[in-house]
Amino acid sequence: MTKPLEGIKIIDFTHVQAGPACTQLLAWFGADVIKVERPGSGDVTRNQLRDIPDADALYFTMLNSNKKSLTLDTKKPEGKEILEKLVRESDVLVENFGPGALDRMGFSWERLNELNPKMIVASVKGFSDGHHYDDLKVYENVAQCAGGAASTTGFWDGPPTISAAALGDSNTGMHLAIGILTALLGRDKTGKGQKVAVSMQDSVLNLCRVKLRDQQRLERVGYLEEYPQYPHGEFSDVVPRGGNAGGGGQPGWVLKCKGWETDPNAYIYFTIQGHAWEPICKALGKPEWIDDPAYKTAEARQPHIFDIFKTIEGWLADKTKFEAVDILRKFDIPCAPVLTMKELANDPSLRASGTIVEVPHKKRGTYLTVGSPIKFSDLKPEVTASPLLGEHTDEVLASLGYSQQQIFNLREVKAV
Ligand code: COA
What we know:
Layout: E1 9-13, H1 18-28, E2 32-37, H2 58-61, E3 68-71, H3 77-88, E4 92-95, H4 101-104, H5 109-115, E5 120-125, H6 140-146, H7 170-190, E6 195-199, H8 200-207, H9 209-221, E7 252-256, E8 267-271, H10 277-284, H11 298-301, H12 305-316, H13 321-328, E9 335-337, H14 341-345, H15 348-353, E10 356-361, E11 365-370, H16 393-399, H17 404-412
Parallel strand pairs: 1-2, 1-4, 2-3, 4-5, 5-6
Antiparallel strand pairs: 7-8, 8-9, 10-11
The site of coenzyme A has 25 residues, from helix 1, strand 2, helix 4 and strand 5.
């Protein structure tokens, strides 16, 4: 099977999560990704939250599969020279250093473009270039706050809340991957590389666009009818936190199932899709609701939507989350059990589709990771282990023409 990105060479100058998530995706699809790391320490996530002494942490292994590792001190003249050689023969350089770090290293966009005008230089930063916060270093939760996710997530009587999903990190990496692939296609037409920049704030906001929709609706009409605050509560002039309400025209909520008293995840998400009202009533054994004027339309239901959810919880009381979904699926009701990480890790369907994969690793034994969520008819991405620190240094340097003696000398001066 030919991999679509085979032949594309990527200098992966990334660390932590946002950048590595991007380059890992490109590596799965066949790109030759060379991760450049500082000699001796490498990506900080190799050491973060270790569960096995002396073995790379899962944080690192789960974001750096299918890559090569080259150690290089790019602040030393010898390291700079090697990086320059790599730049001349690569297609893409991806980085997510703090603001200005690449420039301080001597590799500004202008310099990189001079070294290789065909190269695409892709960056993640916390804020976009020219933004009044563009000097800030940023991590995941900071981005969720800056991008509008935190102010709109959680319950109205609690503080702004962070999502467990990596909206700032991996999501930004996915945006960057789209930008890189677009620039590669553009290069096929123009023969020129370009700079691709994605900010974490912008990427979070992009996923929160329905909340910006709500801000404008709120300013026009003064209320948001799909939020739990409507019609009994108050609205201010900003989009409130809506708890577990559905984000569109379909009211929904997280509802208790059998065992919720002891199992914190004995819940399902139940959606009252407007045109499915009749099947919902049939599923719940409430045929009298079908034509009752107090229930018949979405508008009529909204004032007492939480009473309706309470009734559904009564129906769920003797059913596990899995039993409930098995019944509701027959009525075409959009719903799902609230699944735990343990349940997902062992889900036979996710294993079969390659979304959850076991990867053999030289030091750790086998570890579990999330494989490609994108499925192709002509490509089944194979996930291979993340590299050990500097595992491919000799191989990459030899491919650049360095002799064994020269590599030995570079090690002596700690340039690699
Ligand atoms: N050789 C020599 N120096 C290296 C090197 C190498 N191989 N790799 C990195 N460095 C240097 C950098 O040049 C920089 O030096 P300088 O500050 O003296 O110019 C230094 O290491 C620190 O880099 P920096 O990226 O600023 O690391 P940090 O640990 O201070 O900050 C972040 C980490 C993530 C907060 C920051 O990188 C950042 O804001 N990145 C952009 C947004 C982002 O991606 N956030 C993380 C999402 S997971």
